[in-house]
Amino acid sequence: MSKQIHVAVGVIQDSNDRILIAKRPHHLHQGGKWEFPGGKVEKQETTSEALIRELKEEVNLDVASTTPLMEIHHDYGDKKVFLDVHRVTNFSGIAIGVEGQRVEWVKISQLSQYEFPEANKVILEKILS
Ligand SMILES: Nc1nc2c([nH]c(=O)n2[C@@H]2O[C@H](COP(=O)(O)OP(=O)(O)OP(=O)(O)O)[C@@H](O)[C@H]2O)c(=O)[nH]1
Ligand SMILES: [Mg+2]
């Protein structure tokens, strides 16, 4: 039995009601799909601390605070994930794909045009509701 991976995920919303998404590099788990930026929570870190660190590392944003939005448990078969999803509106900086990945600001009404990992379905439903 593999242990589930605790992942901090950010739904980052700007003042024009656009959400930041990034394309997962092909060699990674669920590669080629779009995601909400984030990454694994390390020992001794809160979810918020992990997310603030990951958003600087991955998309170059300086985040001041995050707010819990929802928790998702999903089993991909090859991997079990616990997505600890936070909303982020309090940030500064210009979003860049620091690791070379594509990043896009997308209107909420356009989000369903993009392909996300299976576990993200409930996040999309929540954002769109
Ligand atoms: N960041 C992120 N990960 C997601 C999302 N949806 C989803 O199923 N995941 C899964 O969460 C897991 C961990 O994400 P990650 O690859 O970003 O972790 P990380 O940045 O810390 O990667 P690393 O430690 O390998 O460098 C992956 O298995 C990924 O498929 C999402 O919207 N955003
Ligand atoms: Mg990541």
Automatic annotation (TrEMBL):
Query: Does the record bear DNA repair in its keywords?
Result: yes
Stored PROSITE patterns: NUDIX (PS51462), NUDIX_BOX (PS00893)
- Name the chemical reaction catalysed here: 8-oxo-GTP + H2O = 8-oxo-GMP + diphosphate + H(+); 8-oxo-dGTP + H2O = 8-oxo-dGMP + diphosphate + H(+)
Domain Nudix hydrolase: start-end pairs: 2-129
EC class name: hydrolase
Task: Return the EC number.
Answer: 3.6.1.55
What is its cofactor? Mg(2+)
Q: List the transmembrane segments.
A: none
The UniProt keyword set, sorted, is:
DNA damage, DNA repair, DNA replication, Hydrolase, Magnesium, Metal-binding, Mutator protein
Pfam families named in the record: NUDIX_4
The record's section on InterPro entries has: Mutator_MutT (IPR003561), MutT-like (IPR047127), MutY_C (IPR029119), Nudix_hydrolase (IPR020476), NUDIX_hydrolase-like_dom_sf (IPR015797), NUDIX_hydrolase_CS (IPR020084), NUDIX_hydrolase_dom (IPR000086)
Instruction: State the family it belongs to.
Output: Belongs to the Nudix hydrolase family.
What is the name of this protein? 8-oxo-dGTP diphosphatase
Instruction: Write down the species.
Output: Shewanella schlegeliana
